[in-house]
Design a protein that fits this description.
The complex is a heterodimer of chains A (about 260) and B (about 325). With about 260 residues, chain A is an alpha/beta fold. Chain A is built from nine helices and 13 strands. In chain A, the strands form three sheets. Chain A has a six-stranded mixed sheet, sandwiched between helices. In chain A, strands 1, 2, 3, 5 and 6 form a five-stranded antiparallel sheet that branches. A two-stranded antiparallel sheet of chain A has the order 12-13. The radius of gyration of chain A is 19 Å and the shape is globular. Chain A starts with a helix and ends with a strand. Chain B is mostly helical. Chain B has one domain (about 1-315): ABC transporter involved in vitamin B12 uptake, BtuC (Orthogonal Bundle). Chain B has helices spanning about 1-10, 15-20, 25-60, 75-95, 100, 105-130, 130-155, 160-170, 180-195, 200-205, 210-215, 220-240, 245-260, 265-285, 295-315. In chain B, helix 4 crosses helix 6. The chains are: A alpha/beta (about 260), B mainly alpha (about 325). Chains A and B meet through helix 3, strand 7 and helix 4 of A and helix 10 and helix 11 of B.
């Protein structure tokens, strides 16, 4: 039992997510019990508005939870300061970054902020981590470019690279493939699953790319209005539970071809 | 660059001869002018230029809006209101206060409180309203509001006090004694110390607040420090030199366009330096060489700087943080 626990880096207990309000909290989802495992790419899928982003923001403590507990490395997440948390969890969000004169290198270097001194001076270790992240995300050619000169796909890769440079066990990404074309979507998924496997990180992403998710992720969290279904992609497809993604019976997921069928 | 401009305050007028003639018979008077008038004025110009451009830069990054600045967001107007309350209000409340109104210390205190209140209000509103365009409009509303209150105050106050306030409103770098300069300088140093710990968070704010949080930045503390430092800078500058427009917005942009960087480790000192230079040059022009008149410094900063910003923007075609 203890052996298994070592692979779990993040765990929720009866977690309730949503938005606190004066007249009763607005609960988006509750009784969430999920676990993030080391070295695995976990994909959170679900319909628009079901609360995927809220869940990701709550797990990374960007917004407060309503009830329940989140355990990070078997400790209550509240016991971590902002800076300690930044050494455990890195984030890639959907929001666009404001236009600035930042270069790609400077952007990636910002990932080292939890480790640097008061003025943000990079030491040898920081530089080494940045170089490593750049190699892993194949950004060598772009480092000296300015961020606002990049295409959407390149910028997304730079943001992922920044999260890598942050050198955290957990990387959480909110719809990292949203604005990308199909080739960049596949490349992003590949990059993330490589990072998870080879660097032994746990990666949690939300995505609407169900087909890609079933192929690349080792674990799926399927979020519906009623409950959270957790399992390996294959088992969710076999049990037809993946069809809970669709309201209408005219769309279904075909087990053999791994594709949607429209009747 | 600093050296040249530093010289340029002293060089254009009689001051050149001054230094040359320092062994002359007339040196006593010249020395007196330089020591007690020119030098304090040059130092004031430097402090005002530095402080306003730093405030502008802080505002632009904090609100992630290139149009932000102490003047645009109504913070200068807040300081004006504080001063107006003191100078004009004292005459309404009766003679016993008019002595108090003369004190530079009280003026700078009320200006700081005024600017802090407006900045605080803008911050609260900006929490409710995420749209940065609305925040700017709200800032403009705040400055209209304060000027309205000032007009009402002006209507009820004595002509003497009104004149005092009007002259203050033109903006002036002169008329500071060494004691006043010392107060100015100490508040300035205090505000500068406050921004040292926010240099690193400022860089992460370039990614937006959520990202800054995710890389371990304490947003609340950062915001509070920026808030206090900016109101101190703007408050004390407005108190001693009057509401000076334009520098706070323009100097940071000119620096960003020239240096092509967003790194605040470079931007902060560079815009402070550039701001100081613009102030010194503007002051030199305001002197109107070979004439007895001194133009209001406010008009000069704008006439001098606005074309430069327009030219830089047309050339580079965009405004960035």
């Amino acid at each position: 039992m203890h052996e298994m626990n070592e692979h779990i880096v993040l765990k929720t207990k009866n977690l309730s997510i949503g938005y606190p309000a004066k007249k009763g909290d607005r609960i988006v989802a509750d009784h969430i019990n999920v676990e993030l495992q080391k070295g695995k790419l976990t994909c959170l899928i679900g319909k628009n508005g079901v609360g995927k982003s809220t869940l990701l923001r709550t797990l990374s403590k960007m917004q407060p939870r309503l009830k329940g507990d989140i355990e990070l490395e078997n400790k209550n997440i509240d016991d971590f300061t902002r800076n300690q948390l930044a050494k455990k969890i890195s984030l890639v969000l959907t929001e666009r970054i404001p236009t600035s004169n930042l270069t790609v290198f400077e952007l990636i270097a910002l990932g080292r902020q939890p480790y640097t001194n008061w003025i943000g001076k990079l030491n040898d270790e920081d530089i080494r981590q940045i170089q490593l992240a750049i190699e892993q995300s194949h950004l060598e050619d772009l480092v000296n470019q300015r961020c606002d000169e990049l295409s959407d796909g390149q910028l997304q890769r730079a943001m992922i690279c920044r999260a890598l440079a942050q050198n955290t066990d957990i990387i959480i990404l909110d719809e990292p493939t949203a604005h990308l074309d199909i080739q960049h979507k596949i490349e992003t998924f590949k990059l993330l699953s490589n990072i998870a496997q080879h660097l032994n990180r746990s990666i949690l992403i939300s995505s609407h790319e169900v087909q890609l998710a079933t192929q690349m992720a080792s674990q799926l969290w399927l979020m519906t209005n009623q409950k959270m279904i957790i399992g390996e992609p294959r088992s969710l497809i076999e049990s037809n539970e993946i069809n809970l993604l669709f309201d209408s019976s005219s769309i279904s997921f075909d087990k053999e071809s791994n594709q949607f069928n429209i009747k | 660059m600093l050296n040249i401009s530093l010289g340029s305050v002293d060089i254009p007028l009689k001051s050149v001869f001054n230094s040359l003639w320092s062994q002359d018979a007339e040196k006593e008077t010249w020395n007196y002018i330089i020591l007690n008038y020119r030098l304090p004025k040059a130092i004031t110009a430097i402090l005002v230029g530095c402080g306003l451009s730093i405030s502008g830069l802080l505002m632009q990054t904090l609100f992630r809006n290139p149009l932000a600045g102490p003047y645009v967001l109504g913070i200068s107007s807040g300081a004006s209101l504080g001063v107006a309350m003191l100078i004009l209000g004292s005459s309404i409340l009766g003679g016993s206060f008019s002595g108090l109104a003369q004190s530079q210390f009280l003026i700078s205190l009320s200006a700081s409180v005024g600017s802090f209140l407006v900045l605080f209000a803008v911050m609260i509103v900006s929490k409710q309203v995420k749209n940065t365009m609305s925040i700017l409009i709200i800032g403009l509303m705040f400055s209209s509001l304060t000027s309205a209150v000032i007009s009402v105050l002006a209507y009820f106050s004595s002509a003497e006090n009104l004149q005092q306030y009007m002259f203050w409103g033109f903006g002036s770098l002169g008329n500071l004694t060494w004691t006043e300069l010392l107060i100015f300088f100490s508040i300035f140093v205090l505000a500068s110390l406050l921004i040292l710990p926010v240099i690193k968070p400022l860089n992460s704010l370039l990614l937006g607040e959520n990202y800054a949080k995710s890389i371990g930045i304490n947003i609340k503390r950062t915001k509070n420090l920026i808030l206090i430092a900016t109101s101190l800078f703007t408050g004390v500058i407005t108190a001693f030199a009057g509401p000076i427009a334009f520098i706070g917005l323009a100097a940071p942009h000119m620096t960003k366009l020239i240096l092509n960087t967003s790194n605040h480790k470079l931007l902060l000192p560079a815009s402070a330096l550039l701001g100081a230079n613009i102030m010194l040059i503007s002051d030199t022009i305001a002197q109107m060489p070979n004439s007895e008149y001194t133009l209001p410094i406010n008009a000069i900063t704008t006439m001098f700087g606005a074309p430069i910003v327009i030219w830089l923007l047309v050339r580079k075609k965009k405004m960035v943080l």
